[in-house]
Amino acid sequence: MTVPPQPLTLAAETGAGGILLWVVLPYVSLAIFVLGHVWRYRTSFAVLRPSGRG
């Protein structure tokens, strides 16, 4: 007996989990990436800059 092939479905069609995975997660990842770079840019100068004191 052979099993008929199941139709392929995209993960975005599977409900809330698919929406979370394919819509929300990329934006959250991008926001963390950008904010991490901004934070690193702003704090690295305080560490690398000589204070001129002492």
The succession of helices and strands, N to C, reads H
- Provide mean pLDDT, rounded: 80
What is the alpha-carbon Rg in Å? Answer: 23 Å
Number of separate helices: 1
Strand content: under 5%
Q: Low-confidence parts, pLDDT < 50 over ≥5 residues?
A: none
The separation of the N and C termini measures: 84 Å
Largest sheet: none
What shape does the CA trace take?
rod-shaped
What share of residues is helical?
A: 55-70%
Q: What is the strand tally?
A: 0
- The secondary structure category is mainly alpha
Structure description:
The chain has 54 residues and is mainly alpha-helical. It has a domain at 14-47. It contains one helix and no strands. It has one helix spanning 16-48. The longest helix has 33 residues, at 16-48. The radius of gyration is 23 Å and the shape is rod-shaped. The relative contact order is 0.08. The chain crosses the membrane at residues 20-39. Keywords: Cell membrane, Membrane, Oxidoreductase, Transmembrane, Transmembrane helix. It is a multi-pass membrane protein. InterPro entries: NarG-like_domain, NarG-like_sf. Residues 20-44 form the NarG-like domain.
